[in-house]
Amino acid sequence: MIGSAGARRIGITGLGVNVPERVLTNDDLAQIVDTSDEWIVERTGIRERRIARDDEALTDVALPAARAALAEAALAPADVDLLICATVTPDMMFPTSSALLADTLGMPRAAAYDLLAGCTGFVYAIAQAYGMLASGLAHRALVVGGDVLSKILDWEDRSTLVLFGDGAGAVVMEPVQRGGFLGFELGADGGGGDHLRLPGSGSRRFDDPEGLVKMNGREVFKFATRVMVSSAAAVLEQCDKTMDEVDVYVPHQANKRIIDYAAGKLGVDSERTVVNVDRFGNTSSGSIPLALADARADGRLHDGSLVLMTGMGAGLTWGSALLEWTDATAAAGR
Ligand code: UT7
Which atom of ligand 1 is closest in space to residue 255's alpha carbon? Predict the structure, then answer.
């Protein structure tokens, strides 16, 4: 699916993030499985990640991010009429985490649902919110992207354990007077789905019903390097923009090698590329909002900055969004 934005401008007016307090370093992991800081840094660029406590579920991690996004947008929760939560690690299948969050935040009029698109979940969710807002079906949306993958990892499998971390981000989306989303490209290839799967997590019976992540890392790596480039190129072309015009490139934070490959192919230098995989690992649906927040904290996001986000993950799925950044509520004109 690909499309450029219509006449109605929809942008981000609030951004919030949150990660669990507990830091797990590569040396900590080397006490658990046969690995080393050297191997992990060389092959992935990851140095540490955050891990939720036993009693912390997805909504516990996501809630402070959602509150921060709403506060920044200066929006009363009751004014939000759409909440989408992108996650593969909801508190439980139902009630949905989005319904739980809407209730805790105080959004009695919000339609709320969870969205499942692997690590691409956040990009899918902002595209969905865009569609609802641009059509006028919804007026103010809260989009949450977050995961606590530590809960579904096999803590004996070094090939997956070292890659992931927990974290969440949230954005408020609404009509803006300038800037906003320019276009999206989304795709899925279930034919490659077997390379990254969670057997036993749904209605199909498996011989191995533990419900833990299984991954063919090499195949996912090949897929990732392909789609991170093709999806970004497609959305740029659709929106009549070039990579030279992009001010901030926000790739999914899965592996520094994948980011470097994609940035090299796309011709974007390191100054414009956001990297925080070293501090958080792959936080799945939390990855892109966490990276956006870091870009802003570093003073890289300004009114009018052209931002390119590209994600990929289980499904297999991929997606890109092109956005002209707007400075919070000034742009909403409320
Ligand atoms: O959002 C999408 C999520 N998934 C991804 O992004 C994953 C994409 N794939 C990758 O990032 C890489 O494929 C990995 C980081 C998972 C693996 O890196 P690689 O360079 O493709 O390594 P490899 O799978 O080819 O394994 C090389 C060796 C193997 O040993 P042998 O067979 O050569 O003796 C592995 O057993 O490294 C071994 N290995 C490890 N050694 C130390 C695998 N994991 C580890 C580890 N520590 N944690």
Answer: 11
